[in-house]
Every structure is written in structure tokens, then in C-alpha cells.
Automatic annotation (TrEMBL):
This is ATPase AAA-type core domain-containing protein. InterPro entries: ATPase_AAA_core, Bact_Antivir_Def_Nuclease, P-loop_NTPase. SUPFAM superfamilies: P-loop containing nucleoside triphosphate hydrolases. It comes from the Bacteria. It comes from Acinetobacter indicus CIP 110367.
Length: 486
């Protein structure tokens, strides 16, 4: 099953373990950019290929361990840790982890190199009587063969350019690798780029989706394109209806034909039940025009075509039809379709009622698909339970708590950091505080403000309510409630 186990993004590790993911955040937070990078990564369309550079870095560090790390006073345990990282598939294949490790190594190498230079300078200072200049101007250190053999760093004190080049080259390669690493990276349970389904926010750019009823299903298959997905679905529904009629007309006591009939009928029932759920009408059924060239949706006495759907339903239907047809092309039941569906702005064109239903509808229709969606709608966010997590790009926070238990107001204020009280109500509360603090005897003035707030008292937050009831108690204590109806 193709599903994302982990996403690496901006020093954050998102453990999904196959769960659905809702991406949210303030305007400009980068929701679309995140999904585009994720899709490119999954489909292998990323322009950055750091593998050759990664291999060079690994080779250079291994060379350094053998030749320079002793002089740089790396401990045995430090070298062993480096070797483990360089030989670990997880550390070397996941760019996020490898980048983090080599960034830490770069800091460590700088400290070692700084210490090496400090020790070198001290050595020259303390052994100035043993140092003389040769004819070519280089320093010559008079040390015994035994001492040179015992500690090779004396050799690099004399020829530090070897270590200098090692450090310089590694720093350059590490900086380049980190600068070009993938913005979004994933770890998958299994991977098939043909099971990645991406829907951008312009999937329904016009209110009128023209469905080409003149194409047959065979023509859609031959074209190999799913751009007119609603047309393909209508053509397939017509094709299935004709196939069903043909099988019933020529039916014999044949197990194969009975199986075919059952499969087609099951498919129609599946589509009708899905439409009943999303259209919130249990009388919904699929019917066909008399000449058999159009599919119609019937609800009680009302009949309409797929073209007549509102822009909101068309936005949902575009995704639903696309996944439905992909299941059919693979010759599997829709509930068995596997993969990852990435949907940018899942709430686009949707009324509040549909915002609450769109994600549960798609998950119910395609239970083996992992949905990764972006939204700024609190109704989408609170529509799901513990099988879905939320990632806030603004705060870089992964929320694994079940947000379906929270009110829309709580999500708006807590997740989107937006005050839900109107500016008018805010000013009224401030007026109460002003009167209580500076004009406590202005009872009429206080009654007028409370009269304006009382109809909306259920909407105000706890702090505002405390001012409201404090003002009421003040009037009651002074027997100045008057005609105020509370």
C-alpha cells in the first residue's frame, strides 16, 4: 500500500504512519508550495539530485578519518559514530537526516581545526629554538624520528595545507548539499508514482464544466487522458448501463454472466449511495435519457444533469470522479483503490455545509487512499477524528489531538489566532470597563451599553463575560437595573 510514514520539513519530523494530513496556516504560509514540493518528491520530479554530492562527502570524510582525524584529535568513539552514519542507509538516503548529521559534523570539525591551529601556534612558540628557515623560506622543525613516528600531527604542523584543504573542501561541499536539499522529504511504506493523485486549487476554474457526451468510453481510454474526467465518468456510466442491459437481455443460467451483472449493479449502487450522502438526499438515483446518451441525477421529482451541479459540488465531483475512474481503469472496486491523494484548497468553492462533509465523504468513498489536503477552513479541520492529523505551517506545529471535539470558534481562535468577536463587541466591552473604572455612577450609560451586548452574550469570550456580569452586579447592587431585560 502506497502511504506516507514520515514527512521531513523545516527541521520538523511529521510521523503520519499512514494517517490523513490536513495542512493549514495563515495566508502566505506556503500551503500550496508545501504540497507542490511534496508531489514533486513523490513523483520523482524534483530538480535537485544530491546523491553524487552526498557520495563525495562520504568519500571525503572516510579519507579524513584515515589520514587527518588523528592529527585533529578525534576520539575513537567520534570516528566510530561517523562511520556508523556514513554506512547507515537511513542516515545517508534521507536528506533531512543526512543534512542534520553533516551540519553537526561541520561544527565539530571547526572546533577540532581551531584547536589544531591553536596547538600548532603554541608548539612553534614553545619550540622556537628548534625551528629554522630553509633556503626556500619554509619552516623546518628539528624533531626526532621517534617523536615524529609517535605523533603524526607534528608532520601536519609542518605541512598544515593538507588539513586546511580537507576542511575547506568539506565545508564547501556540506554548504552546497544543505543549500540544495529537498524542502519536503518523505519516508514511504511503499512507493508507486502512478498511485500519486494531485488536485490543484484550479481544478474547477469555471462555473460551467462542459461534459462531452459524444465521446464513448472506449474513446476516452484510447486518448489516455483524464483531463475531462467528468466526461469520462459519464461515458463509463452509459457504457456500464448498456452492458448491464445487454447481459440481462441475453441472460442465461451462467455463473460468469451473473457475476458480471452483480459487479455492475454493485458499482451503480456504490455511486448512488455516495451521491446520496454528499447531496444529503436519500432519494438520489442515477437515471438515463431515453436516447441513452446522457446521465441524469434524480431526486424525488427533480431531475438534473452533471452540468447542473453547483460549483461546490463540481469541485468535489472532480476529485470523486477522478479517483473513481482510476479505480475502474485498474479494474478494481473504488474501496480497494490505493495511493496518496494530494488536494490543494480542498474547501475551494464549497459552502460551509460542504466544507464539513468533503473530507469525510472522500475518506468514506476511498478508504484505502491517504489524503493530504490544505485548507484554511475550521469546518474541514473539525470534520475529522483521530485518523487525521493537522500541521500548522505558521507555527510549525503538528497537532495529533482529535480536533473534532472542538468548536469552530475554538479552532479559529486557537489555530488561526483570529479573534472571533467583532470589533463592535470589543469596543462595547472596553466601554464597560471604562465606565466601571472611571464613571461608576453613570448607570444609564452602563445600561445602554449592556442593552447592546445582551443579545450576543453567548458569543463573547470568558474574559468579556466577566466584565458583562460585573457590570450587571454593579447595577443590581445599586438597584439601578431599570428596564434592562437580562
Amino acid at each position: 500500500m502506497s502511504s506516507i510514514h514520515t514527512i521531513f520539513f523545516n527541521e520538523k519530523i511529521l510521523f503520519l504512519e499512514g494517517k490523513n494530513l490536513i495542512i493549514t496556516g495563515n495566508n502566505g504560509a506556503g500551503k500550496t508550495r508545501f504540497l507542490n514540493h511534496l508531489t514533486d518528491n513523490l513523483k520523482g520530479n524534483s530538480n535537485t539530485d544530491n546523491k553524487p554530492l552526498r557520495d563525495k562527502i562520504i568519500s571525503e570524510i572516510n579519507f579524513g578519518i584515515m589520514n587527518f582525524h588523528s592529527a585533529l584529535e578525534f576520539k575513537k568513539s567520534e570516528n566510530e559514530h561517523l562511520k556508523y552514519i556514513l554506512n547507515s542507509e537511513m542516515h545517508t538516503q534521507v536528506e533531512y537526516i543526512f543534512s542534520k548529521e553533516i551540519a553537526e559534523f561541520k561544527k565539530q570539525l571547526k572546533k577540532k581545526f581551531d584547536n589544531f591551529n591553536k596547538n600548532k601556534d603554541n608548539y612553534f612558540k614553545n619550540n622556537s629554538n628548534k625551528i629554522k628557515s630553509s633556503e626556500n623560506g619554509k619552516l623546518v622543525i628539528k624533531i626526532s624520528k621517534e617523536l615524529e613516528k609517535k605523533n603524526e600531527k607534528y608532520f601536519y604542523y609542518y605541512a598544515p595545507e593538507h588539513i586546511e584543504n580537507y576542511v575547506k573542501n568539506l565545508n564547501s561541499m556540506i554548504d552546497s548539499y544543505i543549500a540544495n536539499k529537498k524542502i519536503v522529504e518523505v519516508a514511504l511504506h511503499s512507493w508507486d508514482k502512478n498511485s500519486i493523485y494531485f488536485f490543484d486549487s484550479s481544478r474547477v476554474s469555471r462555473k460551467d464544466i462542459s461534459i462531452d457526451q459524444f465521446k464513448t468510453y472506449d474513446e476516452f481510454l484510447k486518448s489516455g487522458s483524464l483531463t475531462d474526467i467528468e466526461g469520462a465518468l459519464e461515458a463509463y456510466l452509459l457504457f456500464q448501463k448498456l452492458e448491464l442491459l445487454s447481459l440481462i437481455k441475453h441472460r442465461k443460467a451462467s455463473g460468469t454472466k451473473i457475476k458480471q451483472i452483480n459487479e455492475i449493479e454493485k458499482w451503480f449502487i456504490k455511486v448512488e449511495n455516495d451521491l446520496k450522502w454528499i447531496l444529503e438526499n436519500n432519494t438520489t438515483e442515477l437515471i438515463f435519457t431515453k436516447n441513452g446518451n446522457r446521465v441524469l441525477i434524480k431526486q424525488s421529482r427533480t431531475t438534473f444533469s452533471l452540468d447542473d451541479l453547483s460549483s461546490g459540488f463540481k469541485a468535489i465531483f472532480n476529485i470523486y470522479a477522478n479517483l473513481l475512474m482510476r479505480a475502474q481503469i485498474q479494474k478494481i472496486a473504488p474501496e480497494h483503490l490505493k495511493g496518496i491523494a494530494i488536494i490543494d484548497e480542498i474547501d475551494v468553492h464549497l459552502h460551509i455545509t460542504l466544507q464539513k462533509k468533503v473530507l469525510p465523504f472522500l475518506i468514506q468513498a476511498f478508504p484505502n487512499i491517504q489524503f493530504i489536503v490544505s485548507t484554511h477552513s475550521p469546518f474541514v479541520i473539525t470534520s475529522q477524528n483521530t485518523n487525521t492529523v493537522v500541521f500548522d505551517l505558521t507555527t510549525n506545529e503538528l497537532i495529533e489531538e482529535d480536533l473534532s471535539r472542538y468548536s469552530y470558534e475554538s479552532v479559529i481562535k486557537g489555530l488561526f489566532h483570529v479573534e472571533i468577536q467583532s470589533e463592535k463587541l470589543e469596543s462595547e466591552i472596553k466601554a464597560i470597563a471604562e465606565i466601571l473604572n472611571n464613571e461608576p455612577n453613570s448607570y444609564e450609560k452602563l445600561r445602554n451599553v449592556l442593552r447592546n451586548i445582551t443579545p450576543f452574550v453567548k458569543q463573547i469570550d470568558v474574559e468579556s463575560k466577566s466584565f458583562y456580569f460585573r457590570a450587571l452586579n454593579h447595577l443590581l447592587d445599586n438597584q439601578e437595573l431599570g428596564d434592562l431585560d437580562v
